[in-house]
Amino acid sequence: MVKVRQGPLDGLWSGAVRVWEVSALSLKLLGRMLMGELSLKNLSGPIAIADYAGKSAALGLTYYLGFLAFISVSLGILNLLPVPVLDGGT
To answer: How far apart are CA 13 and CA 44, in angstroms?
Structure first.
């Protein structure tokens, strides 16, 4: 990991670009799972997420916050999908 100092506007722009990249990656991987190109074993539940959170926290605050951001963006993308089971529909 390389630390880069940026001004406020450059930092916001870099953050937006990173969110876009993570969003595209999440959708791409979901599509590959639906097409059968990627195993469903790659999905993790709350226990695995907690395990990875602990491992990232052991590496330091920067890694932990990055992991939390990644999980937040991925969950946000999944919540936007019109899947009745996920969006509270019946």
So the answer is: 30
Q: The whole model's pTM is what?
A: 0.72
Contacts of 6 (CB under 8 A, 6+ apart): 14
Q: Single out the residue of 33, 18, 27, 32 nearest to residue 70, CA to CA.
A: 18
Structure confidence by residue, pLDDT tens digits, 27-41: 898 888 888 887 877
Among 21, 33, 29, 9, residue whose Cα is nearest residue 70: 21
At a CB cut-off of 8 Å and minimum separation 6, what does 83 contact? none
* Domain boundaries along the sequence of the chain: 9-87
Cα gap 67→76, rounded to integer Å:
14
